């Protein structure tokens, strides 16, 4: 017996369609190679996009991490993370240490140089955002920060629920 396919999803509201359209525009822009190269040049951090992403992720969670856990958190293959960790280690931005819970495993963490590099990348990125929003009032910037933070938190919660096979929560 063939299982019954799920019912097609109901069409998204106009607001959700607009949000998705703008979100895609922003995602494409932020992923552009020329933008990445400009940020790396201005920050003095010569990393490819994948390594820079790992550097930023490691700087936001200072606890040493196993490479496999890092790959899972970033939703990429472990071999991909391993290559990038090698690039970061060679640049002096991270070190590998034995995992105290399992001597066969390693944990990675940023060096002082790695934390400084991540900070420089963040500052260049923040200046770019500041310039783009220069004409916005402080109130509008505050509302955007609050709503954008809420949206990202809800997206991540929803995504985690889908990954875990749970029903997404409705608010």
Any overview of this molecule?
The chain is mainly alpha-helical and 171 residues long. Helix content is 64%, strand content 9%. The protein contains seven helices and two strands, in the order αααααββαα. It has helices at 14-30, 33-43, 49-60, 67-74, 78-90, 112-132, 138-164, and strands at 94-99, 102-110. A two-stranded antiparallel ribbon has the order 1-2. Strand 1 and strand 2 (102-110) form a beta hairpin.
Keywords:
single chain; 171 residues; mainly alpha; two-stranded antiparallel ribbon; 2 strands; globular
Structure summarized in a few sentences:
The protein is mainly alpha-helical. The chain has seven helices and two strands; from the N terminus they run αααααββαα. α3 packs across α6 (112-132).
Strand content: 5-15%
Q: Multimeric state of these chains?
A: single chain
Helix content: 55-70%
End-to-end separation: 37 Å
Name the helix and strand elements from N-terminus to C-terminus, one letter apiece.
Answer: HHHHHEEHH
Number of helices: 7
Shape: globular
Please state the CA-atom Rg, rounded to the nearest Å: 20 Å
Low-confidence stretches: none
Structural class label? mainly alpha
Strand numbers in spatial order across the main sheet = 1-2
Major sheet characteristics: 2 strands, antiparallel
The strand count comes to 2
- How would you state the average pLDDT, rounded? 89
Provide the fold topology.
Layout: H1 14-30, H2 33-43, H3 49-60, H4 67-74, H5 78-90, E1 94-99, E2 102-110, H6 112-132, H7 138-164
Antiparallel strand pairs: 1-2
